[in-house]
Amino acid sequence: MSEIQSIAILGATGRLGTQLLAALAKHPRHKALDIRVLTRPSPWPTEVDPCLRVTVYPIQYGTSDTHEALLRALRGVDVVISTVGDDSGLSSNDVRSIAELPGFRAQDVVAKAAKAAGVKLFVPSEFGYPTHTLPDNTKSFMGGKKRHLDLLKSIGLPWLVLYSGTFPSFEPVPTMLSSTNDNPSKGSPPYITTRYHTSAYLLHILLDQDASELPWSFYRILGTRREKLVHAAGGDKWVLKA
Fold this sequence. Notes:
- There is one protein chain.
- By secondary structure, this protein is α/β, with parallel strands linked by helices.
- It has a single domain (6-241), classed as Rossmann fold (3-Layer(aba) Sandwich).
- The protein has helices at 15-26, 66-74, 102-117, 143-155, 195-208; strands at 6-10, 34-39, 54-58, 79-82, 121-123, 160-163, 217-222, 225-231, 238-241.
- The strands form two sheets. Strands 3-2-1-4-5 form a five-stranded parallel β-sheet, covered by helices on one side. A four-stranded mixed β-sheet has the order 6-7-8-9, with helices on one face.
- Helix 2 crosses helix 3 and helix 3 (102-117) packs parallel to helix 4 (143-155).
């Protein structure tokens, strides 16, 4: 991958998506970035910092035109970042897997279109705690996230996954991402990580590092401790590397 110039965001109106837009506005390269937002065909409800170059693409899912509309929105995009959650009101009592919730079904559709459009990297709405090590036959509600990674691999669309642990119930006022790797809490995991810090760290990974090293990689941010998940010897498990 060459330097990332264009980012498409799925789920930009949600709690994490709005923090991602806020972090983009603070990044030194924000003026040079082409930012595209994939949203439902309804009035765009989010106030965006005027310093960002944002183009909104309304997408109606589940129609015969969905794929073509996504292709138009994604051609020329380097990275798709999915921050989808779900506002359907459904839960594990209603569906067997998170993959069956509307937001995550849309993520699958966008991923397939992203591959067809030539997108180089996909950041799925994984976050939370690691699920890629779950067994293939898992009955866990979160197993749908692993199946999405399997989908990306099957279609040959490189991913980058960022795990963040538990988000706070209420997002505090944004503060700068600490430059230290030491966690000052002295407590036991899980450490609390804000949505803004997660967004700022994700942008640091994507925009400040060698893009050629990003495909098929796993990262983690817990509080102010940042780590990279790498293959252990033999390649049959994943370990944390500070």
